[in-house]
Each structure stands twice: as structure tokens, then as C-alpha cells.
Fold this protein.
Amino acid sequence: MKKINIGIIGFGTVGSAVAEVLRKNKAVIAERAGVGIGLKAVCDIRRIKTSWPLTPDPMTLINDPDIAVVVETMGGVNPAKKYVLAALKAGKHVVTSNKELIARHLPELLAAAAENNVSLLFEGAVGGGIPILDTLRDNLAANKISEVYGIVNGTTNYILSRMTAEGKDFGAVLKAAQKLGYAEADPRADIEGYDASYKAAILAAVAYGARVRWESVYREGLEKITAEDIAYAGEIGYAIKLLAVAKLSGGALDVRVHPALVAKTHPLSNVDGNFNAIYVKGFPVGELMFYGPGAGGNPTASAVINDILAALRAPRPATRGLKPFPLLPIAQTAGRYYIRLQAPDKPGVLAGISKIFADKKVSIAAVTQKETIGNLATIVILVHGVKESSLVAALRAIKRLPVVRAVGNVIRIL
Amino acid sequence: MKKINIGIIGFGTVGSAVAEVLRKNKAVIAERAGVGIGLKAVCDIRRIKTSWPLTPDPMTLINDPDIAVVVETMGGVNPAKKYVLAALKAGKHVVTSNKELIARHLPELLAAAAENNVSLLFEGAVGGGIPILDTLRDNLAANKISEVYGIVNGTTNYILSRMTAEGKDFGAVLKAAQKLGYAEADPRADIEGYDASYKAAILAAVAYGARVRWESVYREGLEKITAEDIAYAGEIGYAIKLLAVAKLSGGALDVRVHPALVAKTHPLSNVDGNFNAIYVKGFPVGELMFYGPGAGGNPTASAVINDILAALRAPRPATRGLKPFPLLPIAQTAGRYYIRLQAPDKPGVLAGISKIFADKKVSIAAVTQKETIGNLATIVILVHGVKESSLVAALRAIKRLPVVRAVGNVIRIL
């Protein structure tokens, strides 16, 4: 049997899981691939105990004529980008699970892969073990994709699930999650939605062949979601999830990350804990959802090794050439909204609010007045589909109403 | 751009959807595939109104040197098998969505494809638009798959969902489903589990490379499930689903179709209506689930056209060579069970039942005595993991107890 050698740059959680799985699943991989995959060497600047040949210099692997595929699992943009480009230029296929690198530099990296007639694959960068990029690129090739909604950050989904189950507020659950290792000591990349926005940009690139500037992805994190928002949403049949959205809207692309109310009848609403799921709508296939572990050494190793096999099977670029798409500004998006207000519990309050919504052509779908604490009542309003700029204008006017004490939260509805 | 011609044999719901989608999605398909797909002719023995060249004789397409891919969407085994074999022997790739043909004759068809160095692909045969076979074969190639559980029959899932939502019995819901076109006039292929057992055999073939005699798949249908079973299961946190199971158990393969209690925390429990979903467990990936439309012209056309593109991309057999696996007899399987009994509401009944379970080493996990109607009480018992033969022996003894009036139902727990 033919043998193909690979090298791994960055021997942390994912890199070492790749090595371990190549060893444990050697027979099944060889049987399916029709070739043996040999790990020739690993590279890490740390002095790691490993039975594999270890080098501190990535260029040793990159310049090794015996190595056909370079796996990059260092993470971060620098110096990962330099080594990925060097490997592509050296004629190696590159497989990476580095979401930040891919989200920020995909066009440049794809161009380098195309120039050198090698593959650049990055299934592990979105959804961990879920083969979502392969699926969008190959298994749904007959489809016009129109909507992609993903729960793509395990940390925030874990936090939301515990807030929902335990009725606790964000801060308390975040602390508990940090203690258990489900959230980082510095959790901002997750809870402020940066991680999800990398993934939204990558999903848009693969689903639509769109060149998306990652910095242009609208982003809201989880910080403003309270236990009462989750409870009120639950009462009216919704779960709150942090969504990465990539949908076509006319000829423009609507890419964003924010919390959203998801109807309990929608398959995404049942995705709990640190699992990920990506919902896809297309023609002719209709609605699909792909569910699985969104992170971790073993699931990501599954994605990385599959990419190695895919590169060897049919070398080709990971996506079609990326085309620029106009991005829909968030003010131009349209949708339904959940609004939580605080106002004194006295006559005329609802009349004032309703009048402003009517003036601004925002149509109210449902209103509930919640319990009064002190003399302040909480009012929860759902509005029908409306352009976000109209809603913002209405809310600005409502905030100026003397009877309205505070707009507690405004959350989009999927 | 290079153009590839195809022909479609059987121009019913799926065949005509394939033609329509090739027309509507022409640009996106050409862009992704790098070739144009032309539909040269369609074949149907009926005189159909269509703008495509129509022939009543499949051999006209099969012998056409301009046609590279033959799509078989006639359904049934005869004469579909004859034409699929003829097309493979004529050096055409064959794409089919014909589950019965594939479940019954896969080894012979694969051998013919291999001999003639062409592809035989059948993604549409399981899970409609869900790309599950592609995923098992390619996107999870690094994994040792250990468990596949599928909700693969939309009709029975629709019936169970309505029984659950409305508290109605099987017969009433079946009639309503027939009126709405969700169940056939002769519904036996669906409700007795034949359709699901075709799909279980195909899933086992693709996930494990197993040569499974379809006739050996253990099969139980939906007929015995009552509204009270669904209600009792719901009270203790379970939904009832008709599952296709294909799992490895030691060196043997455990392939079966039957209703099962699925914990509401399991992602399969939330798959409602006529949707399908396939849950997969493997190493290193962990747990995945793939959800989508399990039938219908458009979703199946998505699968068929993707197979056409896959055949053109990298011609190769749809599965590895199939190997014989020992099949685990149902009596040798082990699991947890739900048991519903009827017995007079008087002292000593539970003691008698418990003693027999203890004698037969069946360990009771929970017992609930339900309301008494007349002087008959319903007792619901859950038992811990046990070999099915031991449970059957215990139930045989329990049925002989003078105090037990009837064993209402026994349902496996996932």
C-alpha cells in the first residue's frame, strides 16, 4: 500500500489528538483511504515528551520532500500564517483548524493554494467534529443555499443552557463555567462573539463563495442576556441562543452574530450544553441541521484527518474563488424582535408606547405585563417583522417617554 | 465548459424533480462542478407531457454513447435491477434513490460497478435530502463508527408525533395521515417497518462495509404502540420513535428496526413530523446528528444530483468492498426495557412480579402503578440493562402468574 507522510505544526490539544487518532485508527483509515498515512514528524517550540520525532522549527517539516501534507494546529494568526503560506508555496497540501487565521486571511491563503496547485482545507475551523464545510461544499453542491444559522460557540451555548436550566444570571454561570474549564479565564473571545464571528465569516465564504471581511461581521455578545429574558422567552415558547447568521438577502449577504430567540419548535432550540449545530436552508433540499461536538481534541482531529484524506483523494481548492458580495448593514436587516421595558405600573403607559410603535409603523404582535417590583412593571413586547432601522427609531422615541424608565433589552427573533 | 450528459429512467416525483432542479440550478451546479450537466433524455413507459425528449425504452438511454450517467428513479426491484445492471455494464455511472433495490441487491450491483470501473451511488435511498451516506463514507473517513440510530421513515414519525401531540390512538391518526397524503392507502411498508429495515441495511453497509442480508434485519412496526404508552413514556421523560439501529456489538453487527423510548435529552427525541434524522457515534468524533427532510421530490433530487456530481468528480465505488459480519440475533441483544402490564388492583401483585424478575436476574429500575379502570390497574415497569433472552424468559413466567391479566406492551429503550 502506498504511504503518504504528513507533519504537524503545533502539538497542543488538537495536534496531539491528530497523532493519537492516526495511530489508533490506522487500519480503518488505510482501508477507507486506500493509502497509509504516516506521521513523519511534529513541530512545537515547547520541549514536549512525545514518541514522534520532534523539531522546534516548522521549516524542517515544510522543506521535507517526504512530507505531502502539513497540518497546522498552532492557532493564532502569527506566526501560523507565515508557515501556512510557506507550506503552500513548498507544494504541500495544508490542513488547519485555525478559525482566526482562516477568517482573517482566507482569500490570500486560497490564492496561494491555487497558485501551487495544492489544497487548503479547514473543516475543523467551524463546528469541531461536525463535517459542515465539506457538506456545504460537496454534499449539497446541487443546492442554492439561502440561509445558514449556527450555534458555533460551545462556551456561550453551555452558559445559556445553564442559565436556562438553573434560572441563574450570566455572571454567576460564567464563573461556574470558568471553574469547570468550560470558559476561559479571559472569556471575551467567546462571550463577546468574536469566536462566533470568525465562524460566521467562514460559513459565508464556503456556503456562498463570498469574500467576507471578518471585521465587517455585525457582532453582539451574550453579556446583556439576563435570567429574566430567558424566563420570559421560555414562557412564550422560545429559547435564547447565540447565533452565527449567514443568509442571502436579495443580492446582498447578511452576516452577523448575536443572541436570538429561537422558537422551541425549531431544531436549533434543542441544542444544549457545549454542543454545536448548524441549520442550513437551500433549494431543492429544504431544511437541514447538523449537530455535534463543536470543539475538543478528538472531534477536531476527526475533521483534520478527514481533510487530509480529502486532499489526497481529490486535490482542489477548499472553496470556489471567493467573490465580493455587498454586505447588508444591520440597520437594513429585517426581522421580529423581543423588547423588555420597565415602566411605572400606572394607566397610560401602554397607550404611550403603543402610539409610538404605530407612528413608526412597527406592528405589535404580543404584549405581556410582568410582575411589578417597587412600582416598576416589566413589559415584554414582541413585534412583527420590521426593518431594524424602523425599530431603532421607535425605541429611541420610546426611551424619551417620561413614563418609560428603561429599555431593558432588545433581542432579535429567529 | 465541458458538458456531461445524463439520462433519467422513471419520470415520476423524483425523476421529474431532478430534471427541474437541473434546469433551475444550472448556473450554481456548473460553477461548483466545473462542468455543465445536460439532461439528454428521459424514459418512462407512461406517455408523459414533458419538454424533454421522452423514450419508453430504458435501453435507448443505456446504449446512448453521449450519456455518461444514468439516473434510475423508477423504484421497485423489477425491472429496475435489470436496467441498473445494464447501465453499469455499458460503462455508465448509475445514481439511484431506490432503497429496496439497494437493500436487496447491493453486493451484486457494487460488483458490477467495480468490474466496469464506474460509480454506483444511492444517497437518496436513505434520509431523502440528508447527505448521510456521503458523510459516513467520506466526511467521517477518519472514524471508527460504532452506533448509527436513525429516524428514517417520515410516515411513522409523523404518526407518532401526532399521537404524542393529540393523545390519539394509532388507528385514528393513521386514517388522518392517509387523508392528508402522509401515509399510503396501503401503509404496511411504512408502519410495519419494511421501509425502515431497507434503510437500516443500507446504513450498515455504508457505515461498516457490512454485507447485510436485508431479510435478516429484525423488524417490529408501530402497530402495538398505544396512546397510553406514549403518555406514560412522556411522564418519565421519554418520546417514542421508530428507530433503525445499526451498531457494532463486539465483532457482531446489531441491525434492527423497532419502536423505542428515546430520552427527551437525546437529540433524536426532538425530531418531529415527517422529518428524518440519523444519529452517529464514532471515535474520535463522538456524537453527531444529521436532520432533514426524509422524502419528497426536491430533497431527493438534491441527493441524486449531488451523486451525479460526486461520480463525475472522483469515480469510485459507493462503499468499500462489503464484508460478511455475524449478525447479533435479537435474543442476544441487551438493553433497557419499558413494560406495561395489567393486573388486578390488590395486594401481592407487585410482590409476585418482582420475585420473578429477581429470579430471572432482571433488575427493576422503576415501577409506577397507574390508574385503575374497573378493578384492573396498569403497572409500568422500567428494567435496567439486561439481555433480551433473560427478559423474554421473565415475561413468559410473569404472563403465567394468575394475578397478571395481560402484558400490554414491551418497548426497548434507546
